[in-house]
Specification:
The complex is a heterodimer of chains A (109) and B (493). Chain A contains three helices and no strands. Chain A has 109 residues and is an all-alpha fold. The N and C termini of chain A lie far apart (49 Å). Chain B contains 21 helices and two strands. The chains are: A mainly alpha (109), B mainly alpha (493). Chains A and B meet through helix 2 and helix 3 of A and helix 6, helix 7 and helix 10 of B.
């Protein structure tokens, strides 16, 4: 699992260092996948039991990481959707999806 | 249990939800948001009073007992910040009425504005590290929309960068929470503090502390991570800029303060030394930027960086005087930065430019604007009896007590240079030849001036009335210096 996470982070970093905006967005998606998997792995993956704690449950999986991941996934989904729309608008308005050409601000002298 | 805690989050939240239904009726939107922000201020005042008389208050959401459910905690530190946030939000809102423009008002400006306040107040109030992440996201999502609303080229361009930086820092936040959870097995801040104290902060927790520093440092714009801020904050219109400058970076600062005083205070030699070095570098870089630019917005944006450095320096010293100073300075800075950004917004509305070389002589026809700016500038630099002075005195005093003379000297020197940078705006913008500008007639200066005047008066009162305010601030500092107060209040009811 750790290796998968490592590869995801690696690919995400590579994609985010590229110039095309779309690749960067895919990169952020992969980065958040990596982070979510990490959340699950770090908190000790347990199998074979439901995440329910009954009166006389013998063993159970920790439900908290799953709740956290669910929240984190929803948030990253929203942000990615927003980013895609923003990228589209930026492309229409600025006429480029190359991050190199989006440099600079006025007021720098 | 105290339901008052959730009101400063709930009121803006409900307001925002209601406002979405009135998105074509601007007048109704204005009235409702103004009313709700006044009610929020009242609720925050009641909260501060309550915390002052009854000590730290906590609320277990849905009555799940403290370490298991989500807990909201209001100690004096967070209550004061919530109050300041509500006041700053109110003034920015009033300012928006006449300056933000019909298009933005039609496109959900006020609902998003309220959601931003939900996020900020929530982040200040929550007592759960993952809930902090959620409120961060609420705040960031609204800030993305506010930043891009209007859709000019510069806004789109800067939003892309701002969004990317913040997505990366959010991912890092999730990662650091995961590591922390694997070490301590809990998310409740008070409980984390207890567990960290039990295992005595081994090296891996110091690494996690540094990860958190990176995450919050990106939000709070400390030294190596401030790079995105001058560009992104340059893009939005004045009231949004004031809101960002006064609140968003301060949430980062608050989170650093909270984590470094509540969780990671066992290995001060490493983590706080690092924080101190970064804080001093932040001050130096900020001052250089503030002096170098000839642009009103940029100068004040770099002054945010200076202030973040000063506050964090106080936190890193770790004694009660420095804490008191930092809290005092943090609140002062929120008020006065909002005021300065709004004043800069008025200057830009009159002159149509933010370049200092293209403006002069404003004081002849706008004496009110000129003098308000002058007082705000003095207050920012820390000239007694205005409010910046006392905070800096306490921070420097704490620095000397903690025998970190170099940092204290940097803080002192930085105030001189900050004074120089804002006086540069005053001298170039307000003195000299009187000019006429193209868009001058359109600017409703009298209305716009209301908000900064409120803020400047508040800052003056805050400075002169220190005697009355200090008990509140010291109560806040006491909690920071003594984490067991916080833990007891949350876990042992």
């Amino acid at each position: 699992m750790s290796i998968v996470i490592g590869i995801l982070f690696m690919v995400a970093t590579y994609l985010m260092l590229s110039k095309s905006l779309l690749r960067i967005i895919v990169g952020t998606g992969l980065l958040s996948h990596g982070a979510h998997l990490l959340l699950l792995t770090m908190s000790g993956l347990k199998r074979g039991a439901p995440p329910l704690l009954g009166e006389n449950a013998e063993n159970y999986a920790d439900p908290l990481p799953q709740a956290l991941i669910l929240t984190a996934i929803v948030i990253s989904f929203g942000v990615t959707a927003f980013f895609l729309v923003l990228a589209y608008r930026a492309y229409k308005e600025l006429g480029t999806d190359n991050i190199e050409q989006m440099r600079g601000t006025k007021g720098n002298e | 249990m105290n339901n008052l805690i959730i009101l400063p989050i709930l009121i803006p939240f409900l307001t925002a939800a209601v406002l979405i239904f009135f998105h074509k009726k601007i007048k109704i939107q204005r009235w409702i948001s103004a009313l709700s922000s006044i009610v929020t201020i009242i609720a925050a005042l009641a909260l501060v009073h309550n915390v002052h008389t009854n000590g730290i208050q906590s609320l277990n959401i849905a009555s799940w007992e403290a370490p298991f459910g989500i807990t909201l905690v209001s100690d004096m530190f967070s209550a004061l910040l919530v109050l300041t946030t509500s006041i700053v939000a109110f003034t920015c809102l009033i300012f928006s009425f006449k300056s933000i423009g019909k298009e933005r008002e039609n496109f959900y400006y006020y609902p998003v504005f309220n959601f931003l306040i939900v996020g900020v107040n929530g982040a200040f109030t929550t007592g759960d590290i993952f809930n902090l992440f959620v409120f961060f996201e609420v705040m960031l999502m609204s800030s993305y929309v506010l930043l891009v609303l209007g859709g000019t080229k510069i806004q789109l361009r800067e939003s892309v960068k701002y969004l990317l930086v913040n997505i990366i820092s959010s991912a890092l936040f999730v990662i650091s929470v995961a590591y922390l959870y694997s070490m301590v097995g809990t998310l409740n801040m008070a409980h984390i503090s207890e567990r960290v104290a039990e295992i005595g902060q081994p090296a891996i927790l110091s690494v996690i502390a540094v990860l958190f520093l990176v995450v919050f440092g990106l939000k709070g714009a400390i030294f190596p991570l401030y790079f995105w801020m001058p560009g992104s904050y340059y893009a939005p219109p004045a009231p949004v800029l004031a809101l960002f400058g006064a609140l968003l970076t301060k949430v980062g600062v608050y989170s650093i303060t909270r984590t470094f005083t509540l969780f990671f205070y066992h290995d001060v030699g490493f983590t706080h030394q690092l924080l101190q070095i970064l804080a001093i570098l932040t001050i130096i870089i900020g001052v250089i930027g503030a002096i170098a630019y000839w642009d009103v917005k940029k100068i004040i944006i770099y002054n945010i960086i200076v202030a973040v450095g000063v506050i964090l320096y106080g936190i890193s010293v770790m004694n009660i005087d420095a804490f008191t100073g930092s809290i005092y300075y943090l609140i002062h800075d929120m008020i006065i930065k909002a005021g300065l950004f709004l004043l800069a917004g008025i200057i830009i509305a009159i002159t149509g430019t933010s370049n200092l070389r293209h403006m002069s002589g404003l004081i002849k026809r706008y004496p009110g604007l000129g003098w308000t700016f002058f007082i705000a500038a003095l207050s920012l630099a820390g000239i007694p009896p205005l409010s910046g002075f006392i905070g800096k005195v306490l921070i420097v005093q704490g620095g000397f007590e903690g025998e970190s003379y170099f940092g204290a000297a940097v803080v002192l020197l930085s105030s001189l240079l900050v004074l120089f940078s804002v006086m540069k705006i005053f001298i170039n913008g307000f003195w000299g030849e009187d000019q006429t500008y193209v868009n001058e007639e359109k600017a409703p200066v009298k209305w716009l001036l209301i908000s900064p005047i409120i803020l400047v008066i508040l800052s003056a009162v805050y400075g002169i009335g220190t005697e009355a305010i200090l008990p509140y601030i010291s109560q806040a500092a006491e909690t920071l210096a003594n984490p067991s107060l916080y833990i007891d209040a949350v876990l042992k009811e």
